[in-house]
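Input structure tokens:
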């Protein structure tokens, strides 16, 4: 939820601005960068054009939150200049002042970002990794005088995610970055964040039909067992994702401090012609609009919390919004859960206790072809539903009067259809239908649907499947209803909560 006190736009513009999803006041944003929790505050840095609402002049924007729902925007944190654009990266808390950029009494926050060197600079045409640091809890930043600290002489070496690793020879920093056009993740280590030593390379693997970007690598316990740790490698890809255009895939495996080795069940074998069946890969989200997702450093209680850019490069610069353009997803807590005998990610939106107000409840109601009307959408809503499809072939939830979320009991596919959702003609690739495989549990379809101005985020079966799409309803596009086709279904429980 964006703190509207930081958004002095007109009332009509605020009405269409997302209520739950962070947007910049009147500029462009894309990839989340430098996600870090420090001294009770979550910091969201992000790719930002400070001068316009289309991509360009890449700098790091900045917002903070104490609950991951209410965000306050701050001035640009790390700005582009005549030498470089400031591309994606991460932030670490250098508790031991290994970098020497702060003190033990006041350890620095250190940003590791990609310098995209401009024409006329000494390194024009290359992308290399650089540092900036803050000694006032992330509110102001200074670029390191010795930049760049890691340069491979490559034009597409970017998006460093750095974390502290406890190895057999002590603690050190690990950087996970990409050679984007080679579909490779490259790993380095450092003692001081300044001098870096090459470790290993992972990839190409699974989806390789576009550039690899914004990697992340982190451990998670399987089923909450701290003695059974697995490592998750996230690799975003554009184009070539399962729903078309931009998306995020992941691998589960092992990291020994040098290399990441994917479990065989995380890898998909290519066919004889070299193609991979994309639905067989592991995806963070099956929709069109969840990209560049990375996790917070230093999150409390060892939680792993991710945020993605809620957009797709197929049409990103054309979204019909003013004066801002683009938003972030809700924060998602991720866990590894055994599904069909294999460790797989489960994602749940971070919604605080008491979030929203219950405005509608249905229990033990049979639904057929005559739809069950739910409250009209006039603010952000969260719909939680447990549904027994019963004899119905298809169970559908219609949003905004025309956007259709449906489950087909015969094919076990959950589909979000936005082709008739209102404003769809602003780009030829926007009108679309997305589907994801969903397996009923004890015959029950469990859905959590977050509906905001401009988006639908779906979490099925307790977060085992996520599906995110932007939606821009036209004037008068209202009405929410549940229906069944080919038989009857039973709503065991359904609640609608409103959030203004």
């Amino acid at each position: 939820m964006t703190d509207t006190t930081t958004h002095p736009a007109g009332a009509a513009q605020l009405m269409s601005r997302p209520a739950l999803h962070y947007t910049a006041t009147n500029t462009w944003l894309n990839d989340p960068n430098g996600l870090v929790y420090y001294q009770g505050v979550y910091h969201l840095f992000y790719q930002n054009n400070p001068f316009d609402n289309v991509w360009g002049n890449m700098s790091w924007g900045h917002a903070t939150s104490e609950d991951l729902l209410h965000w306050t925007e701050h001035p640009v944190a790390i700005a582009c200049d005549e030498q470089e654009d400031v591309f994606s990266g991460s932030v670490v808390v250098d508790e031991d002042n290994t970098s020497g950029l702060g003190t033990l009494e006041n350890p620095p926050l250190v940003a590791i970002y990609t310098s995209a060197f401009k024409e006329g600079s000494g390194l024009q045409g290359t992308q290399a990794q650089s540092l900036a640091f803050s000694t006032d809890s992330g509110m102001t930043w200074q670029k390191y005088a010795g930049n760049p600290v890691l340069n491979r002489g490559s034009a597409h070496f970017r998006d460093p995610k750095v974390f502290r690793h406890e190895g057999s020879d002590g603690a050190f920093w690990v950087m996970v970055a990409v050679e984007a056009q080679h579909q490779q993740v490259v790993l380095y280590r450092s003692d001081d964040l300044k001098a870096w030593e090459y470790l290993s390379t992972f990839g190409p693997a699974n989806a390789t039909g576009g550039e690899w970007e914004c990697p992340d690598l982190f451990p998670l316990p399987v089923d909450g067992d701290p003695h059974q740790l697995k490592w998750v490698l996230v690799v975003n890809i554009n184009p070539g994702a399962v729903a078309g255009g931009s998306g995020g895939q992941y691998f589960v495996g092992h990291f020994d401090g040098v290399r990441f080795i994917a479990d065989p069940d995380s890898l998909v074998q290519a066919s004889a012609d070299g193609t991979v069946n994309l639905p067989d890969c592991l995806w963070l989200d099956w929709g069109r609009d969840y990209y560049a997702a990375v996790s917070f450093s230093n999150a409390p209680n060892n939680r792993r919390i991710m945020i993605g850019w809620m957009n797709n490069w197929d049409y990103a610069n054309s979204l019909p919004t003013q004066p801002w353009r683009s938003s972030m997803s809700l924060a998602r807590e991720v866990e590894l859960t055994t599904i069909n005998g294999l460790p797989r990610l489960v994602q749940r939106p971070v919604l605080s206790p008491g979030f929203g107000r219950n405005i509608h409840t249905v229990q033990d109601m049979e639904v057929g072809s005559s739809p069950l009307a739910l409250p009209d959408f006039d603010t952000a809503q969260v719909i939680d539903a447990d549904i027994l499809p019963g004899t119905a072939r298809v169970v559908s939830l219609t949003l905004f009067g025309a956007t259709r979320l449906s489950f087909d009991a015969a094919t076990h596919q959950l589909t979000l259809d936005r082709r008739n959702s209102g404003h769809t003609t602003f780009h030829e690739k926007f009108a679309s239908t997305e589907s994801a495989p969903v397996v009923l549990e004890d015959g029950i379809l469990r859905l959590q649907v977050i509906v905001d101005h401009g988006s639908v985020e779906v979490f099925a079966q307790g977060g085992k499947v996520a599906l995110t799409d932007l939606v821009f309803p036209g004037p008068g596009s209202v009405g929410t209803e549940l229906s069944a086709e080919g038989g009857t279904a039973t709503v065991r429980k359904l609640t609608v909560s409103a959030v203004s």
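The CA atoms of residues 111 and 229 lie 28 Å apart. Confidence is low (pLDDT under 50) at residues 1-15.
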